[in-house]
Amino acid sequence: MTATPAPSPAPDPVPAPSPDPTMEAIGRAVTAGRAGDIGSARRKLLDLWSATGVTGDPLHRCTLAHHLADLYEDPARALVWDVRALDAADALTEQRLQEHHAGLRTAGFYPSLHLNLADDHRRLGSFDAAAEHIGAAREYAPRLPQDPYGDLLRTAIGEVAAAIAARDTDARAPASRAGR
User: What is the signed CA dihedral for 75, 81, 87, 88, rounded to 10 degrees?
Assistant: First the structure.
């Protein structure tokens, strides 16, 4: 008599990411800002930035800085935060990003981050720096998804590139500031 092999145990399901209170707080603040409560959103995000620190979790720093930049109409102030967002993205590992959300890749952050930097520099009249960042945004753009978000960013990259070529420093319409 041959023994029937015991069934192999079912593989462990991929565990769901643990809730991240900082990312949840960022989301609430961003929602408040988009609803028009800019002052409150800025204070909440700045408090989170202070708690995270400049050497804290790169995902938190990148997300905070990216959204803080959106809360400043002054391109010089937005530039400070956009530089911090790019710096944090450079420190972000794929592993940390996967812990937060399995569908995200760090390469997907760069088109938006460089687009925002290009737009800040353009608005400040620093067209050479703007051209460098729009070039970087274009290099990363093929990694964007073929979906409405990717389309929005590709369109915005073209719009900012045209504004750079025209030496236009005017603010773009809020609805067309993709990636922000």
Answer: -150
Note the pLDDT tens digit of each residue in 108-167: 889 999 999 999 999 999 999 999 999 999 999 998 989 998 999 999 999 999 999 999
Token pair of 59, please? Answer: 């995902």
* Look-up of token digits 């045209």: 162
Return phi, psi of residue 111, to 5°. -60, -45
Structure tokens at 153: 């960013």
* C-alpha dist (Å) from residue 152 to 14, 72, 103, 144: 32, 21, 19, 10
Tokens for 165?
């070529």
CB 137 within 8 A of CB 158: no
Structure pTM?
Answer: 0.84
